[in-house]
Design a protein that fits this description.
The structure is a homotetramer of 286-residue chains. Chain A has 286 residues and is α+β, with helices and mostly antiparallel strands. Helix content of chain A is 24%, strand content 40%.
């Protein structure tokens, strides 16, 4: 029988910039907020009866109003406020998932109210909340890193389609997309983020790499080693951004790993999870 | 204890254009192929031992070589060939997932070898294969559709943040992302695709809509109604691409739903599944 | 002495969707309008005195209001209406440039009000207007075309860095960006567009190509040959979207121009102008 | 008569990463190089005779080979090397234009060979070279800046379509695209770049703004004031990235410029030139 399966709805990509004025010195938080709600949504799908549907426009309004009421601290904090609000406020909503991207800004050292967008990685948070509990996941994406040496690739399986030459010295570059699940629901999220980011960078730089998988695992392990009391699971997606040493022999030149072609596509794609297997898995958090 | 969880790796976005020459008349298939493999990958993560790792470069080569050996029929067919190849050929690989995007071309009616890219939607296929079986999912994305009338939105839940006015006549626009799971492993995939695409378009156009959820469900139901013998599940993601009637009253003008502002962000986002609940679910297929 | 040079300002990317209701049957025009104005703008730059500045917000409002007042026929027509409006209405504005992108839609043959976005190329128009006159330029971009044979490349200059092999049969693919300048200010713009588009496609397909430059010139010449009474200049930008035949010899396979790798970057980029040298150039139109 | 007008061709977006190894400490330069050549190109357009055409593939090879031969110092230096090479090496090439984008990296302080991409702005250089001389233009794009106060907008022209309220305190944000033309052909380009970048940021932050035009002019003027001996012209393109204070009154809340909606489109677009009018203009440099 044809039936409705899993479903959710909400307002996506609500762009919120929050300015906190502390006299001459301002603080800004620049967020992109996405809300996804689920609950008693049979009727709206089957007959178009909207009685259980809080409009996505109201969700957007709530994001702005709650930013005014509660201020915007770390994205994790604000996502918790929002997720709880939607479940508490609307009887037909049983579960909320709030995803936030944060874009960082640096100060321009002339005034207390001038900023230049940092670029580099995007910080992320996602919070799921229902009667069963609250899960908090922090993360980052678009953090591109490169080791210009200290990476090898050899001893791999070879089949009839293998032509790749083994190497003891290559450039290793990737764009890190990482998310980590917290054990608890409170923390100094900004501190925690800075610590995890540092652990990821240090493990990337500090690992003499025999494969990108090894580097990925070392990065996840370093996060759990340094922050294992707060964090129980790390998920990483890391494209292998190939840098090919250009063959300059046709032009009578050597190339001692100095001139590289940075390729776009195709690229290797490595995905892995590192977790504390003493803690319960929580697929519903993701 | 820190341990390795779910993981996979492969070559992503292998751009393959295949030309079949039938005398003066050529056929082209324009694909973007992504491979993800999993299996005995403990060692490579923990110690960097690559013995079980078939290089992603070899995977890329296999895609091109198998295109030559077997030709490229529908993307579903070619994905099955590839997925089986990787699992059969490499003892350490237990599961393969092959994702394909296809870009359609129309003929330029001057020669038999001239084409203009159609644009419009991207066709997709993904195949998972392991000893446990083979799953085939077809799909499309980026198919943008619009009804300039025949859409209402009223009778929704109202909270303290609700300011939206009810409407009995609005523009309804969305960009359809749909995937559907096949019961079996053989079909005339091109015919099947054309039929599902038609069902989606006809249900979108033919549904007098009280909410985008209702339209989404009608689209999924129409696919299962028309193709229920072959297809058991449809997953749809549909942003509500808001078209706001511009308030022209400040300029002494009315606006009888004639002049609209097409907004970018935020947007509503509706996600839902329609399935035959007599058939077994298959999360591993996705 | 430090001084203000060329300058202009305006509202960019005003998204306008216009619905014309002719009973059950609707017509839609989906436009992205950008306005750039120049005139007496010394004061605003030097002292911040805005007395001569019509706000860009007012420009946006005018676009919507004039769409209601005049309707939206072809983008060229609407751009003329707008450009004249800004120069006529505001004494401090001496020159207006209105650029429009149009996204085409096809009907879904179920109702008179259901549409699917065509994709494929974007149609463009730009109009400049000042006391010195009005210029109208039409165009298109993102029209991707491919010949799977009928293209050669040999006999080129060779230097110490040349390793490319000559070929008598290659795939030739490009994404056409073309703009053409009209002699006059009135036409059936939709008809004219369809004719030029056809000329471009037919010349691309019909030219046995020894170089992409030759094809580019043939395309421009075909437009002027077929529409020379209305059009006096064509500017074309065409990337050479390289399709490399994959070397399958390492796998014991031949490749009779059947399996290609479609590369992203780098790409050749060919830019050229074809014009009637009996007509006056008009740099100010571009 | 139908004739060939302005034309050029070349290889675009050659991705070059150069590693300089100074013992344990590496330096990297990450560039995207585009070459455009012009000269005796009548024959190739009219008949497809390629005798005067240096293949774009050879141009790509030259970029990599010359990176090895000369190293890669600042992008301006490398662009000069390339532009001169093409004109000197090939008799049929009379003019070369080399454009370079540079992506900056920061060190990860663990090793001497580990880097994280900085993000933020892209640095640019373009060099034109012919028998008539060499022009060097430096620049940046995608530098997004924001003042959370210190910006007003009032006293502007009002027409029948003006509804915008005047403001004495708004957020001013823009993404700076700037290019500046050098008087000479030698400099410490890295130092020069850092100085101009600082001047742009300080002028943006330090200007109490009555209009974005005023800020743009102040930025250009500051560059010429601080670096007028080396630089004679600055061109700036600055979108007004609107941040609208959200009206929270419907929810019983005030909004003392604390909660903003960051809009995507439409946006104001301000373009202007600031130059030393004692120096000769040089359109051919751009």
């Amino acid at each position: 029988m044809i039936t409705l399966g899993a479903n959710r709805y909400g307002k996506a990509e609500i762009r919120l910039v929050h300015v906190r004025r502390d006299g001459e010195r301002h603080e800004i938080r620049d967020l992109n907020v996405s809300v996804a709600l689920s609950g008693d949504m049979e009727a709206v799908h089957l007959t178009g009866d909207n009685a259980a549907v809080l409009p996505t426009d109201s969700q957007k309004n709530a994001v702005y109003a709650l930013a005014r009421k509660h201020g915007v601290a770390a994205p994790e904090d604000f996502a918790v406020v929002l997720a709880r609000h939607f479940v508490d406020a609307q009887a037909t909503i049983h579960r909320a998932r709030v995803g936030i991207e944060e874009y960082a800004w640096d100060r321009i050292p002339v005034t207390g109210h001038s900023f230049v967008r940092r670029g580099q990685e995007v910080r992320t948070a996602r919070v799921t909340h229902s009667a069963a509990g609250t899960h908090i996941i922090s993360g980052l994406r678009d953090m591109t890193v490169l080791n210009s040496t200290g990476s090898e690739f050899w001893g791999y399986a070879k089949d009839e389609y293998t032509t790749l030459a083994e190497t003891r010295d290559r450039v290793l570059a990737t764009t890190v997309h990482a998310e980590w699940r917290h054990r608890g629901q409170t923390a100094d999220w900004d501190d925690s983020y800075a610590g995890v980011r540092r652990a990821l960078l240090e493990a990337f730089a500090g690992t003499h790499s025999l494969s990108l998988q090894q580097t990925l695992y070392a990065m996840g392990r370093q996060v759990l080693t340094a922050h294992g009391e707060e964090i129980c699971e790390v998920r990483l997606t890391m494209p292998n951004k190939h840098h090919f040493a250009v063959d300059l022999a046709p032009f009578g030149l050597d190339n001692p790993n100095e001139v590289f072609y940075a390729a776009d596509r195709p690229y290797g794609l490595i995905e892995g999870t590192v977790r504390d297997d003493d803690s319960a898995p929580a697929e519903e958090a993701w």
